[in-house]
Design a protein that fits this description.
By secondary structure, the protein is α+β, with helices and mostly antiparallel strands. The chain folds into 2 domains: about 70 residues, Glutaredoxin (3-Layer(aba) Sandwich); about 120 residues, Glutathione S-transferase Yfyf (Class Pi), Chain A, domain 2 (Up-down Bundle), CATH 1.20.1050. A 4-stranded mixed β-sheet has the order 2-1-3-4, with helices on one face. A hairpin with a 2-residue loop joins strand 3 and strand 4. Helix 1 packs across helix 8, helix 4 packs parallel to helix 6 and helix 6 crosses helix 7. Bound molecules: glutathione (GSH). The site of glutathione (GSH) has 11 residues, from helix 3 and helix 4. GO terms for molecular function: transferase activity.
């Protein structure tokens, strides 16, 4: 049985793949009280995955693991496919270039004590997000999805990051990204993931729409 700790990208992928899972939602503000979660990830961040004896953290590594171990070729791109490099690049860019920096923006602008807000490092993180976003926009000028004509896990990774920016109020999508997010979030698996991820669903309902 697969158990996911924390809502988000991993649940979306599991719904896309049609895999059964148990979701253990994690309240990050009270994570120190969640013994089951801390036994899985003593570092206290989400997401984490348990698959039998296997325990993993790092969202993109978890996506790659699930695709390789349980994906039956769905939503991944094979190494001999011309789209492989683009797929892999955007799969990782979603976290390393977009969601990671966006989390730093969120902390620097909204969660840090007043006196520490808008430090140089926060502006750097916002600029990093913006420059990587430029690569996404250029790619979407040529094709509907980041690996080309078909939806892949790279689109889950990047869509998640853009939605994080949108919902935290730190990014307003332009028309290219709005159209793209309309495509990716119209998927039935996204709707199922939102039903599973009740805290995210409530957060999205309070947030700006597309
Ligand atoms: N690079 C990690 C980042 C995960 C991350 O930043 N998670 C946030 C929530 S979106 C978190 O758990 N923050 C609390 C913490 O780091 O203690 C990944 O992709 O899994």
């Amino acid at each position: 049985m697969l158990t996911v700790y924390g809502e988000g990208r991993v649940v979306w992928l599991l719904e896309e793949l049609g895999l059964a899972y148990r979701l253990h939602p994690v309240d990050l503000l009270a994570a120190e009280l969640d013994r089951e979660f801390l036994a899985i990830n003593p570092a206290g961040f989400i997401p984490a995955l348990q698959d039998g004896e296997t325990i993993m953290v790092e969202s993109i590594a978890i996506l790659e693991y699930l695709l390789a171990r349980h994906g039956s070729g769905l939503l991944a791109v094979a190494p001999d496919d011309p789209a492989f490099a683009s797929y892999l690049q955007f799969l990782h860019l979603g976290e390393a270039g977009l969601a990671g920096p966006m989390n730093a923006v969120l902390v620097g602008r909204q969660l840090a004590p007043e006196a520490e807000r808008n430090a140089r490092v926060t502006r750097w993180a916002r600029e990093t997000f913006e420059s990587r976003l430029g690569l996404v926009i250029r790619r979407l000028a040529d094709c509907p999805y980041l690996a080309g004509d078909r939806f892949t896990a790279a689109d889950i990774s990047v869509s998640y990051a853009l939605l994080l920016g949108l919902r935290t109020g730190n990014y307003v999508p332009g028309s290219t990204e709005r159209d793209y997010l309309a495509r990716t979030t119209a998927r039935p698996a996204y709707a199922r993931a939102m039903e599973s991820c009740q805290a995210t669903k409530a957060w999205a309902a309070r947030s700006p729409g597309l």
